[in-house]
Design a protein that fits this description.
Length: 632
């Protein structure tokens, strides 16, 4: 399995319509074109022989590499140290704009910084997940890789007179180039889809201008952030990562730019995350507004309004749980049997069969995000109110339906407590907005249903035997999705029932500060195998602890979680038993939860300082007594 780098050994570049993963040894082993959810061109991440890649690396004995982002940007630099010299590869994609386009560019420049260095470049495309053959044509200083559906044009970046630096050879449909450079010399390549002309020569000065333009773009965007608290650098990197996963033409945020990366190496939990979940994208509103990025939050609210169906029959609901980035809902799941999967993790799935599940919590997340945006000056227009009212009216009649739950289990519908809690949130926020803006609505019916949900959760969702709120009614399984109960205001963060639930989760779901979603052995989810701890849940745990007054513990757990970030501050979905990152990468859910937890914890620490308290508050100290703040 040496042909597969660890999932964490990647950086992310993108142009706000698609993205690419770059390994620490300079290989692009994941890239879909022209959109996040398009078929792959490079997918060595899922099959090192059949997937395809675009590699640019230093050669020779004893080569080591390091990777970093150019400060405050999405420009990735991979540095190579050899016995003879130091070189680097600079990778980025110019933003593609807000109009859907087939034109996308990956820019890669290699340069020798010190001494002498040899680079090798291998361009090995495998179109349509490796299912479609292509042709290659050398043209002047470049080449064209083409199929009936997609063409990629390769332009050369060089200064006149440096032809001697390169040796080119063709092997079937693949292109290989060797460079030898000394200090101060640069060469590069631009891979462009839907180019408006044949390959051309690009001067280093032109490349430098594009580099400067992209640098300006990201720094100008980042300057909109209003956050000045602790962990600012990590929050900015998470914000840039979320922006890279946003499809600019619609404002939709994909859950991750990848598909098929396993939750357990060798297992079957390998999903396609290149779509927009209503839940994930709704959470992004809190994170982005918390940092001051109002434009992105407003665009998502508009996207969400457009997804609400005007006429809903039966119990299907006015929203799907996920969509493609353009808002369509064709997500038929299939397995790519010809791909071996990351380190043998089969099947490799594209599409997502969970798209037709009923998950009752999404209405709460959607309406809560709209309400939060409204509180930050992003007002809901008339069409938006009609859409929101439609959701609340439907939920009034259907809130008691069983569902699949937030984790998309495939074990059949159940009365998930979290789904009920978020249904309460949806109606509560609709009631508040109707009152605050004087909008017409069946508020009396909404209030009656909201109160029925509350009473039901407090009786059937609470298990007296274990002293905790549970995953679904009439069971004893714990579920970390319920960590948000206090965050959304369903229960006070210091309510004895809530503090007892936190204690139960501490004992049953938390291992060395990392949090599991639930115990699959105790709650069969219809899938084989195990999984790692879920990073979203760990950050939600930090948030819950901070709200409950356990600040010292919350801060320590947060700092521990920062040590699990990869070398450039990125997180996947899960953390395995040996600390490795698992699941699709990077994952929006994790990064937005990091932002939320940091904002909550930072505010709580500041408040404690203003009040002259120790960060281990009276509440926490009283509960822990002689045990102290550390139990694990």
């Amino acid at each position: 399995m040496a042909d597969y780098p660890p999932i964490a050994e990647h950086g992310l570049i993108g142009d706000l319509q698609t993205a690419a993963l770059v390994t620490t040894d300079g290989s692009i082993d994941w890239f879909c074109c022209p959109r996040f959810d398009s078929p792959s061109v490079f997918a060595a991440l899922l099959d090192h022989e059949r997937g395809g890649y675009f590699r640019a690396r230093a050669t020779g004995p004893e080569v080591t590499s390091r990777q970093l982002y150019f400060p405050d940007t999405a420009i990735l630099i991979t540095r190579f140290m050899t016995p003879d010299g130091v070189g680097e590869v600079v990778d980025f994609m110019p933003p593609a704009g807000k109009g859907p386009t087939a034109n996308h560019r990956i820019l890669r420049v290699m340069r020798c910084v010190r001494g002498r260095i040899d680079f090798e470049v291998d361009i090995v495309p495998r179109f349509d997940y490796g299912r479609t053959e292509h042709e290659i044509n050398l043209v002047g200083q470049g080449a064209v890789f083409s199929t009936d559906d997609l063409s990629l044009t390769l332009h050369a970046v060089r200064e006149p007179g440096d032809e001697r630096l390169a040796q080119v050879r063709v092997d079937g449909g693949d292109l290989h180039i060797d460079y030898t450079m000394t200090a101060g010399q640069s060469r590069g390549l631009v891979l462009e889809s839907a180019a408006d002309g044949p390959p051309r020569e690009i001067g280093v000065a032109e490349f430098t201008a594009m580099f400067d333009d992209v640098t300006t773009y990201w720094r100008k965007w980042l300057s909109k952030s209003t956050y000045t608290g602790r962990w600012r650098e990590m929050l900015q990197r998470s914000a840039i990562t979320l922006k890279l996963m946003t499809y600019a033409p619609t404002g939709a945020v994909v859950a991750a730019p990848t598909a098929g990366l396993p939750e357990q190496v060798g297992g079957e939990r390998n999903w396609d995350y290149r779509y927009t979940w209503v839940r994930d994208a709704s959470f992004s509103v809190y994170a982005l507004l918390g940092l001051g990025f109002t434009e992105e939050a407003a665009e998502f609210c508009e996207w969400l309004r457009d997804r609400v169906r005007e006429e809903t029959t039966g119990d299907g609901g006015p929203l799907n749980i996920m969509y493609r980035v353009d808002g369509s809902s064709d997500l038929i799941e299939e397995s790519l049997e010809h791909l071996e999967g990351y380190r043998g993790s089969r099947p490799v799935r594209i599409g997502n069969g969970a798209s037709d599940q009923r998950q009752m919590d999404i209405f709460g997340e959607a309406l809560d995000s709209i309400y939060f945006a409204d509180q930050h000056g992003i007002e809901l227009d008339h069409r938006g109110w009609i859409a929101l009212r439609g959701i609340a009216d439907w939920l009034t009649d259907h809130w008691d339906l069983p569902g699949a739950g937030i984790w998309e289990t495939r074990g059949g519908p159940k009365d998930f407590t979290y789904g009920r809690v978020m249904s309460w949130v949806a109606l509560d926020r609709a009631i508040r907005m109707a009152a605050e803006h004087g909008r017409p609505a069946a508020v009396d019916r909404w209030i009656e249903s909201r109160d029925q949900i509350y009473n039901q959760v407090m009786t059937r969702g609470w298990n007296e035997k274990i002293g905790a709120f549970v995953q679904h009614y009439d069971d004893t399984v714990l579920d970390s999705s319920l960590l948000r109960m206090a965050t959304v205001g369903f229960i006070a963060p210091t309510d004895p029932m809530w503090l007892s639930t936190l204690d139960a989760m501490d004992a049953g779901l938390v291992v060395d500060s990392l949090v599991y979603r639930y115990d699959p052995a105790a709650s069969p989810d219809g899938l084989a195998g195990d999984e790692g701890t879920f990073s979203l849940c760990t950050f939600n745990y930090v948030d819950a602890l901070a709200r409950a007054g356990r600040l010292e513990e919350a801060r320590l757990i947060f700092e521990k979680m920062l040590t699990y970030a990869n070398h450039v501050g990125l997180y996947s979905e899960e953390i395995g038993s040996t600390g490795e990152q698992l699941g699709n990468f990077p994952q929006a859910f994790t990064h937005l939860a990091l932002i939320d937890a940091a904002i909550t914890l930072n505010a709580a620490l500041d408040q404690a300082r203003v009040e002259g308290r120790n960060t281990v508050t009276d509440v926490a100290a009283a509960r822990r007594g002689a045990e102290g703040p550390m139990r694990r």
